[in-house]
Amino acid sequence: MEALLVSAGVVALAEIGDKTQLLAFILAARFKKPLPIIAGILCATLVNHGLAGALGAWITSVVSPGILRWVLGLSFIGMAIWTMIPDKIEEEETQVAKRVGVFTATVATFFLAEMGDKTQIATVAMAAHFQQPLLVVAGTTIGMLVADVPAVFIGDRLAAKIPMKLVHSIAAAIFAALGLATLIGAGAKLGF
Description:
By secondary structure, the protein is an all-alpha fold. It is built from eleven helices and no strands. It is 84% helix and 0% strand. The relative contact order is 0.25. The mean pLDDT is 80. It is a multi-pass membrane protein. This is GDT1 family protein.
């Protein structure tokens, strides 16, 4: 249960102000069709984070636990730093919807926007850390929906009222704490 709750909380916080949340704002404002946008977000996230969770599970099967702890600890600290850098959205990511429909465009643009994004990389790291990829993927998907569904319904009005710097700082602190705890565990194994 810890894997689910931590994954959901960390991704929900990390997603606030992320480019996919900005994409949700833009798609909602432009097309005013919340249900196909939300369904598209869900489908894209399940596929993207499912692949990330599988990669995390695979990594744990091929990398020794000692090395994995160091890599994960440093990855979480890197995620803390990356979380503090604001994202921007590219306008062409929203142009696809004019050709293929709102649901298909949302799936395609969200899937592509998540490729290599901090929440996808966090999913890989948490799946490797917790060694429960299904719970991590469920948690990260819930986290994405917690952050993005309100964006679809409320749009730009909410964005101006959220203290983005504070939210990013909290998410960064959680990633840093996970990183430090992992590194301390790795150091303890070496007798530090």
